[in-house]
Specification:
The chain is an all-alpha fold and 128 residues long. It is 60% helix and 0% strand. It has 4 helices and no strands. α1 crosses α2 and α2 packs antiparallel against α3.
Length: 128
Amino acid sequence: MSMVDAYKAMWKNYAKFSGRARRSEYWWVILAQTLISTAFSLINMVAGDSALGAVVNVVISVYGLATLIPMISLAVRRLHDIEKSGWWYLLNCIPCIGSIILIVFFCKEGTAGSNRYGDDPKVPNVVF
């Protein structure tokens, strides 16, 4: 899966909290979000306190709110891929340690074959 495909899949599955997401899908979206945030920050630094800076701040805020639900749903689907409930995402509420545990979870390979959250996303669905 490419970065563009993963980013499109994030928007396509905007608020889909069921199913599974592959490691590549998750990490490509994280990379895309990092690049977009960096670009916004650079534009904001160049714009400074001008009217353009105010507009950029509004765009950054709107983009952050627009991507909040898709990023949470992607993380939940990634947890489903390793046979964990989406409620594990609440570990983010524990400062430092919770985020580290989640990063370890997100780096783990998904369960081979079907699990209780759905079919293996690595195996293409073949219809006869």
